[in-house]
Amino acid sequence: MSGDRGLPPGPRWPPVVQSLALLRFRHRFVPALRRRHGPVFTVRTLPRDRRLVLFSGPEEAREIFAGDPDTLHGGEANAILRPVLGDHSLLLTDAAEHARARRLLMPAFNGAALRGYEPMVRSLAVEEVERWAVGDPFRSLDRMSALTLEVILRVVLGVTDEARLARLRPLVDQTVRVGPAVLLGREHPLLRRIGPWRAARETQRALDRVLAAEIGERRWRPARGDDVLSRLLRAEGAEGAAGAGEGGDGGERLGDAELRDHLVTLLLAGHETTATALSWTLFELGRDPAQLARAQRAAREGDTDHLQAVLQESMRLHPVIPMVVRHLTRPARVGAVELPAGVDVGPSILLMHSSARLHRDPGRFRPERFLDGEVAPHTWIPFGGGVRRCIGAGFSLMEGVAVLREVLTRYDVRAVDPGRERPMVRNITSVPRLGARIEVRPVAGPVAGPGVPDGGPAPEPVGPRRDA
Q1: 367-411 tens-digit pLDDT
Q2: What is the DSSP string of 160-179?
Q3: DSSP string for residues in 382-431
Q4: Sign of the C-alpha dihedral, residues 340, 342, 343, 345?
Q5: CB–CB of 128/410 below 8 Å?
């Protein structure tokens, strides 16, 4: 479609085919478009034959993230998620509504809140990893998914009752596991009545009923907890007090639908992404004995910086989300391209994270690049950027580091069949197709608590040498 409304070139396939290719086969489709059309290209997507212009350089990423949020709408660009997340989701709102939602949610993810969550994360991680069967290969993605789901249910909803957790776990998990075809056809009048599309809608209705009951009950008792729902209910009261002080009538009340959308967004966004990043991290450490030994030493010595770099490098090498997208509400220039209103634009995380121009030896797992100042701004963007940078970025990294400490102070890790593992698309995220299978064995010597050196020698690494 070269020359289509003056946009950069791109494939000529029908929008439905391009949408499926972008969602289902992104790891081959997007690099192929880069090779064929250059660093900037256009894809036609559903719904309504929208144009998406993808960029692969940090300069354009910086412009997009720093652009006027009234011109670059992130909420409109994420419209495909509306049937699941709802109209009030932080990912789907723009302008004043987005700023208000972010203001309400931010206190739940600031530094003080993260420090309060960490002991719970560590406790749940200990319970999980101490159940692992030594010497038996298992899918690390499944175990990390179970752990991060438990963490996010307790952090977001504050649920500790086992009966309620038992109802919530499968509903959240099933909502996350829908495939690209279900996501694309979810609102089609015919498809929504049959097969997996109908099942997805029924799962969502069941999840909504459980959340509605939780919200209704929590409104009737004081919101004293530190979970996100309690904080939102307290924030509602604070907004009311502020409104009354300014001559208002007590301020606006957060409706049940708005609370539901915020909670679902945090439950889904904070579960799958972190679990995937952790499973890839364990898999990469399990195929590189030298990196495993260095990470185990960092875990014993409480070297948070190195453990975070390990997690960051895994997120660079295996992007969970493929791109960051904004919708142009008026004409704008991005880089050297003049673009009309109505076009979606965004940097491709897949292309930027794998670029040899931006990252030396990009196919190699080398966490040190994040400690040596080698990673330039806007070349590592798993959490997006600007006023819409992921609100849970700090929580995700804190959780990942806490989990790695508990795993690595207890176990040596070996990747199983490393040559066969590939990324696969599930929902909008990329997960290990085979589940990032690993095998664990106890480390030599006594287990040291996180941040407490054991004074002993570094354990002997095990596992195959990583392919060059």
Answers
A1: 999 999 999 999 999 999 999 999 999 999 999 999 999 999 999
A2: --HHHHHHHHHHHHHHHT--
A3: TT--GGGS-TTHHHHHHHHHHHHHHHHTTEEEEESSGGG--EEEETTEEE
A4: positive
A5: no
Question: For 153-212, what is each residue's pLDDT tens digit?
Answer: 999 999 888 898 999 999 998 888 877 778 777 777 778 788 888 898 999 999 999 999
Nearest to 10 by CA among 327, 18, 345: 18
Task: State both tokens at 51.
Answer: 């144009």
Residue 243 is part of a domain; what is its CATH number?
Answer: 1.10.630.10
Structural domain for 148, as ranges: 107-268
> Is 129 a domain residue?
yes
Q: How many domains does the chain have?
A: 1
Q: Are 146 and 139 in contact (CB under 8 A)?
A: no
pTM, two decimal places: 0.88
174 is a domain residue: yes
* Alpha carbon distance 446, 15 (integer Å): 58
Question: What would the two tokens of residue 67 be?
Answer: 């652009």
284 located within any domain: no
Weakest mean pLDDT among 3-12, 342-351, 421-430: 3-12
Does residue 460 belong to any structural domain of this protein? Answer: no
Kindly report whether the peptide bond that precedes residue 340 is cis, defined as omega within 30 degrees of 0: no
By C-alpha distance, which of 170, 270, 181, 208 is closest to 84?
208
